[in-house]
Design goal:
By secondary structure, this protein is of the alpha/beta class. The chain is 35% helix and 15% strand. Helix 2 crosses helix 10. It binds phosphoric acid mono(formamide)ester (CP). Phosphoric acid mono(formamide)ester (CP) binds next to helix 2.
Length: 310
């Protein structure tokens, strides 16, 4: 019963470019023909195991399975599971594998989904592991970019905020480097720069053009996409550093004055102060649409992971 033909998603690099393009196609079809998908997962159960807080990822996964006709179970914090009694992740996963058909899990420890996949005999989807990866956010982002811009190639992408611990940033870069003529403007304070392994192993290895800067305004006019991120309190070791850096970038109407008319402003959310609410009424603000798209791409992903399984 264990692991044969089990399709996991731990890292965005687990998917080929064709598979990503196919998922985007299916998500677009679901958006147009929702009723055709309403019973595709009748009798199937999704377990959402969230050892870290979430609004969008957990609820959009649950909404996705419910919209496919399936059912959901799970927990939204480690404290309400037997993890609080000292149970290992491996034992939790082995147990839940017998209760559900597919697992979406979020965990504060980098690499936890790999441990889970070794124990599980049903598909494991990484819904975020520490400051490492968030592949389903990236699928959401790719669907959003392709719907807004009509392409995933020939884009100048500004990534702004916490590039060090931002798992959505790491996964998005890892995905975008496979498309033609992508240029990154990496905007962060020096303490939150993109990790060296991402520069060497992902950007340099793929010969991707990039600029590192702490100046958002300087490059605003060049951007096709501005991807803002939150400075994440939960990843800091001391309060003092967090307080110093948390409001380093606040995007407002004035800062957008030189931006392209078709700039796409994205954010994985939740936001704290990094985008002023006055920007929400700007037609270029795409972040809530991005959150809604998460349901459809996760529907497509669930279908793919369950394909051919009894
Ligand atoms: N984007 C994202 O992962 O949001 P949540 O933390 O609310 O799931």
């Amino acid at each position: 019963m264990r692991k044969e033909n089990t399709r996991n998603l731990i890292d965005i690099r687990d998917l080929s470019t064709k598979e990503i393009d196919d998922l985007i196609k299916v998500a677009n079809d679901i958006i147009l023909h929702k009723e055709a998908y309403a019973h595709k997962c009748d009798g199937k159960i999704l377990a959402t195991l969230f050892f870290e807080p979430s609004t969008r990822t957990r609820l959009s996964f649950e909404s996705a399975m419910l919209r496919l006709g399936g059912k959901v179970l799970g927990f939204s914090e480690a404290a309400s599971s037997s993890t609080a009694k000292g149970e290992t992740l491996a034992d939790t996963i082995e147990t839940v594998s017998g209760y559900a058909d597919i697992i979406a899990m979020r965990h504060p420890k980098e690499g936890a989904p790999i441990v889970a996949a070794k124990k599980s005999f049903i598909p494991i989807i990484n819904a975020g592991d520490g400051g490492h990866n968030h592949p389903t956010q990236t699928l959401t982002d790719l669907l959003t970019i392709s719907r807004k811009k009509g392409r995933l190639e020939n884009l100048t992408i500004g990534l702004c905020g916490d590039l060090k611990f931002g798992r959505t940033i790491h996964s998005l870069i890892s995905a975008m480097v496979r498309y033609k003529n992508i240029k990154f403007i990496l905007i962060s304070p020096k303490e939150l720069r993109l990790p060296e392994y991402m520069i060497k192993e992902v950007l340099d290895k793929n010969k991707i053009e990039y600029i590192e800067t702490d100046n958002m305004e300087k490059y605003m006019k060049d951007l096709d996409i501005l991807y803002m991120t939150r400075v994440q309190k939960e990843r800091f070791f001391n309060e003092e550093d967090y307080m110093r850096l948390k409001d380093y970038y606040i995007l407002d109407k004035k800062k957008l004055s030189t931006a392209k008319e078709d700039l796409c402003i994205m954010h994985p959310l939740p936001r704290v102060n990094e985008i002023a609410t006055e920007v929400d009424e700007d037609e270029r603000a795409t972040y809530f649409e991005q959150a809604y798209n998460g349901v459809y791409i996760r529907m497509a992903l669930i279908l793919k992971c369950l394909e051919g399984r009894k």
